[in-house]
Amino acid sequence: MVALNYQTPDLPMRLNQGKFLANGGCGYILKPAYLMDPNFCYKDPETLNGKNFPINLKVEIIAGRHLYRADQSKGICSPSIKVEIIGLPFDDKSFRSTSINSNGLNPLWQETFEFEILCPEMALLRFHVEDGDYVGAKMDPFIGQAIFPIDCLRGGYRSVPLLNQSAEPQELAALLVHLEFQ
Q1: Cβ neighbours for 114, distance < 8 A, ≥ 6 positions apart
Q2: Domain for residue 6, yes or no?
Q3: Boundaries of each C2 domain copy (predicted)?
């Protein structure tokens, strides 16, 4: 059981919502077999004892569309994407794309990132888009985010709809990505 503050739209809340996309939000996901092993240590991949099914995931960020900050009075944004795997400590990894200068309407990246994931059942793929051009402490660089369970993803070209900080869909904002599993 986990205690979450539903009044605060923070990262733990977004991760919880992303994890439960796997079962339609019904609230129950069966633990993988290695989590029930008393010898398993979440920090040591050697204790998996072959009960996991590792994968290699290649994520190509192709393009975006209609990427804008919530505060649109600050001009055109220069979007940058952080692609990360969030799971057990030995699977956590992140990459950041280049910032596309002054093009929030249809930025083009064509950047590829590779992840080796030992426990895909416990991992989430997070796309976090922010303005790489923001300046100052009062500026909010957030543009949008999307979080998906790794074991629910399919390979191929995908349009990833972005959510705002309250986990509501942003109108027309999306990323075009290509996922490849090995």
Answers
A1: 56, 57, 58, 59
A2: no
A3: 32-164
DSSP assignment letter at 41: -
Instruction: Establish if 165 belongs to a structural domain.
Output: yes
Q: Where are the beta strands (DSSP E) in the chain?
A: 55-65, 79-86, 93-96, 108-117, 124-131, 142-149, 156-163, 169-181
Best CA proximity match to 64, nearest among 175, 178, 159, 157: 175
For 125-161, write each residue's pLDDT tens digit.
999 999 887 666 566 688 999 999 998 999 999 999 9
3-state secondary structure string across 62-99? EEEECCCCCCHHHCCCCEEEEEEEECCCCCCEEEECCC
pLDDT digits (tens, 9 = 90+) for 82-113: 999 999 999 999 999 999 998 989 999 999 99
Range of the domain at 73: 11-181
Tell whether 1 is covered by a domain: no
What is the C-alpha separation between 53 and 154, in angstroms, rounded? 16
Q: Kindly state whether residue 105 falls inside one of the protein's structural domains.
A: yes
CATH number of the domain enclosing 131: 2.60.40.150
